[in-house]
From TrEMBL:
PROSITE patterns: ZN2_CY6_FUNGAL_1, ZN2_CY6_FUNGAL_2
BP terms from Gene Ontology: DNA-templated transcription; response to xenobiotic stimulus
GO MF annotation: an example: DNA binding
Pfam families tied to this protein: Fungal_trans, Zn_clus
Species whose genome carries this gene: Saccharomyces arboricola (strain H-6 / AS 2.3317 / CBS 10644)
SUPFAM superfamilies hit by this protein: Zn2/Cys6 DNA-binding domain
Gene Ontology CC terms, in alphabetical order: nucleus
The keyword Zinc appears for this protein: yes
Region (Disordered): 59-81
Domain Zn(2)-C6 fungal-type: 19-48
Key words, A-Z: DNA-binding, Metal-binding, Nucleus, Transcription, Transcription regulation, Zinc
Subcellular location: Nucleus
Protein's name in the database: Rdr1p
Amino acid sequence: MASSVSNPQPYKRQRVRKACVPCRERKRKCNGKSPCEMCVAYGYGCHYSDDDGLSAPSRVQQVDERPHGSKNRPYVPSSINRNETRSIDTQNVTNQDNIDSAKSRYTIQHSAVAFPRSLGLELRSANPPRLHSFAWHCGIRPEENPNSHVLLSDLITREDYYRISKAYFSVVHPIFDVVDPEQLAKNVEKYWDGDVKTLGYGAVIAGVIALGSFFLGNLGHPREMDVVQYAKGILDDPTFSRIPTVEQVSAWVLRTIYLRATSRPHVAWLASCMTIHLSEAIGLHHGIDREDLAMTSNVSLKRTAEHTRRLFWCAWSINTILSYDYGRSSVSLNKITCKPVKETDGNYTTHLVELAQLIPTDSMNASATQLLNALAAVHESPNAHQFLSLTKGDICLSLYRRLRLLNHILDKSVVLQIIDIGNAALSAAYALVKLDQAWWNVLSTSFQYVCVLLAIDTPESLSHVAAAMRSLDNITQVLGTHIAFEAQKTAKLLLEDSMKKKRQEIQQLEQATHQRSTIETTHLLDIDWDALLDPSDTLNFM
């Protein structure tokens, strides 16, 4: 190392031929790329002077529009943070947010991590501090050691993956479009060929396998749970979790879906919150178009941007709907500027996002008017897919439960809207369960709908209880699980309690009728029938 420092000739020769303007001004080593590694690391606006063979505007244009070669270094658009050279307006710099180029990390300017660098730029430092968590803790203990993992290829063969992934892409992908099929296919081949660079991507592959196996039912892979644990181990491994990536967000979305379908609500809710926090950490909520979001260099930036938008809105929709159904707070982001996803044939992500956006923003303090407006909007939304019909049912029943807490008396038209949504959800649930697509809401929506019909307690709602119970019974028989039988038993107990309550009310009414007839009978016994029947006294009687 000493010899390389003592010999400045290579550095001087490279600087004369290829050094960019910021590196020349700061007397830093430049590797001649566009952008160079030094400018990427420190956020400088990399550009070259005219005597380097390219004019400065053309170089800057390459920085803004052309992907650079490194997969691990993010693209920083000028609209987000282009920390230029000394000629930049430092006041504008301190009002913008930061992208950590080396770690793919989005940081707002008033963060403790970003402030030292912002201060250095404001002071026009020749060597401003890098975006780093300076003095975040005292450094008394070392960080966690990486975990040991078995290879995913030791749990499942490549042939089994392709068989199971077909179920994933036919059932899950049309609704939750969080994985790029072409990118996945390339990384699957690399992973099974032993490429160590794809180990972090193994959590995404494992998530696809787990969900595909789940929706194959009895035909699923016998080591499905081992694959789930493998994905969890990768996501929890400090080696990968220290630096947030788009792949981690995708893997966490897949894990959330699996946990929602198999585990307790609290666990699934925590996982959904984690996906939003990771999305914020890399700036997905701002729809940042960066080349590092593509795993392969030949993926176009436009396609990558659309994929990341779909990924963010899927994660946001899951967290919003799940939190509203569970009665917990969803993750609130300061500002979302991510563009909406485009609607495509055979893909229903747009419809899912639109349903989630119908939920009142202040879900815990929404007024009855806001809830009724949201319910009407949900009723008007199309039943584009059977899963979306179930999702409409989930949101509708959640809205009703909040209206009930407000002691709002429902109009007949509102009751009919709830019944219309609930009946469509029942039909969709039975159709999906017969296809062995055991989405979580084929059972939960059906059970909750029975409860809501009994709670509304009007002639219109009670007339649909029998059909709803039959559907719940049919779904239970097809599923044949403990949770299904438990829900069926609970619904029957509630129905019996409702009937018992009705009988008690009828008895109370009958008692009132019996008391009245006794009083009338006693009064008739005191009538002077002789005077009443005497024709001579009729006029006086009248």
